From TrEMBL:
Organism: Saccharibacter floricola DSM 15669
Name of the protein this chain belongs to: Amino acid transporter ATP-binding protein
InterPro entries for the chain: ABC_transporter-like_ATP-bd, ABC_transporter-like_CS, MetN_ABC_transporter-like, P-loop_NTPase
Entry annotated with the keyword ATP-binding: yes
Topology term for the membrane: Peripheral membrane protein
Protein family according to the UniProt entry: Belongs to the ABC transporter superfamily.
Length: 142
């Protein structure tokens, strides 16, 4: 509905784009299901398709794998990787450090609203420079 009301797109064009985006995120086969008939991972991927319908230059995610089991998290990660390959800039806020490491080109660790450390995820997770980062990662990854 947002492309119709906000972008003044006609209904048929919006429906066509919605179907294309649902296919893109692996939901083409369930395009006519209501949200309460989708799994958690499917709901997250539908939300990504809904956001993409507005043609954003940056995608913002807040805990995209929260409450998802590992298999469903992988589905969401797969969609995000495909968007990355297309050149989509994505910003993810998460406490799931395994997901952050797998999904990121660059990681920023923030504490009390301040950037404590940033860098390549493989370097930062294997050998963080800052004691605060080491303490945080040790708590979450042990």
């Amino acid at each position: 509905m947002a492309p119709v009301h906000v972008k003044k797109m006609d209904h048929e064009a919006a429906r066509r784009i919605a179907c294309e985006l649902l296919k893109k995120v692996g939901l083409g086969a369930v395009k006519d299901r209501y949200p309460d008939r989708l799994s958690g991972g499917q709901k997250q991927r539908a939300a990504i398709a809904r956001a993409l319908a507005m043609r954003p230059s940056v995608m913002l995610y807040d805990e995209p794998t929260s409450a998802l089991d590992p298999e469903l998290s992988e589905e969401v990660l797969s969609v995000m990787r495909a968007l990355d390959e297309e050149g989509m800039t994505q910003l993810v806020v998460t406490h799931d450090m395994r997901f952050a490491r797998a999904a990121s080109d660059r990681v920023l660790y923030l504490e009390e609203g301040q950037i404590v450390e940033s860098g390549d995820p493989d370097v930062m997770f294997a050998n963080p420079r800052e004691a605060r980062t080491r303490r945080f990662l040790r708590t979450l990854l042990s």
